[in-house]
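re the bet — no i am not wrong, look at it urself. input seq straight from the record:
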Amino acid sequence: MNLLKQNLILALAILLPLLLIVGLVLSYYLPLSSISTNYNLVYVTCGSDIDLDYSINCWDFLQDRYYVVNAKIGVNTNDLTLDSNNDGIPDRPEDYDVKIFIHDIKENKSKEITLEEAQTLSIFSRHRQKYLSPENLKVSIEDLRGLLRNPVYRYVLKEGDYSLPLHIEEKYVFQFEEIGWVLSISEAASF
């Protein structure tokens, strides 16, 4: 009987911390599985033939170029001769390589589409709050630097304090501009 009591105390001493760890892990990962949306994300990227990874003013170029009106994507013509600091060098190169993607949130994959295909989609977009889905999930960028000196960034879909990583190619992290969310699942599935 004494041996059973000693083993029971030892078993509880080992089992309780393990149960605590399992509980903490479940409390962290279970909410992540609930982050989802029925809408797919449409975004654009750009670069130049010279330096696709860190093109100057790419983000400004994309913000000026694409917009959503009446659930359809519109395109502005950008002034590529603009020289805001009067140094004789245009602020935007003429060789931007603009790519449009549709990101399937459920499969967490992006697929490149043409502008013509993108313009056939019904798009949900909030003026000045474009990064919010219809369910108020937010697309944001996270810095994973931690203890490393070199920064590592990724895009995530956030709900409160929880985030779900979006698998977007690393070379597009600083060239990403959301256009909006595809309203019809059947439209998004056709790509």
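see?? The chain has a mean pLDDT of 75. told u. also The longest strand covers residues 153-159. so pay up
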